[in-house]
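Tokenised fold entry reproduced for everyone:
>
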Amino acid sequence: MSLLTDPAAVAGLVTREVRTGHRDNTPTRIAVARRSYPTDRDDLWDALTDAERIPRWFLPISGELRLGGRYQTEGNAGGVVEQCEPPESFAVTWEMGDQVSWVAVTLTPADDGTVLELVHEAPVAPDFWDRYGPGAVGVGWDLSLMALGLHIASGEPVDPEAGLNFPLTPEGLSFVRVAGTGWADAAAADGDDPAAARAAGERTIAFYTTNPEDGTQQHE
């Protein structure tokens, strides 16, 4: 069963931006995703920070979800909570092996709910960026923000198996294509060569929509 009836429209709910930065004299690239949710800030904060609720839309998480605490998501990144100002914002390191990047989330009240801004900053790895661009991290966050929206709308957990297989469905391909193209456009707006950004976007789309078991790609 499809997770979405109009996946392209849901992917279009996210505003995407790419920035160039520096951290400790190291060049970085920054992926910024913004989306509005039809709930108040306290509820959205709870969905993002309650260890019992996070797995309903993201991944099981362990550790100490407090300032200075170390956390670990199941099968994915871990890190340290570097900043926490409930219910407004938090920032964490995002560590996978020896790769360290940084994620910050800010919640802003709006007339129709709450705007979530997610900022993911990573040191520049030229070969990886040239091959995949910001969509390498951006599309993954798009899928998570989609799942968060489904959870907020229903209050129910999102089926993790359905979420895992979603990019391999026709609806998932439609979603990933809008998201991947959006990140490519954002990279070009930040100064990347447009043709190279589009090619990197296509490689990212293929990565997310290819069945790892048999190497086949979902087609529209």
About this structure: The two ends are 17 Å apart (CA to CA). The longest helix spans residues 135-154. Strands lie at 15-23, 26-37, 61-63, 70-73, 78-85, 89-96, 99-110, 113-123.
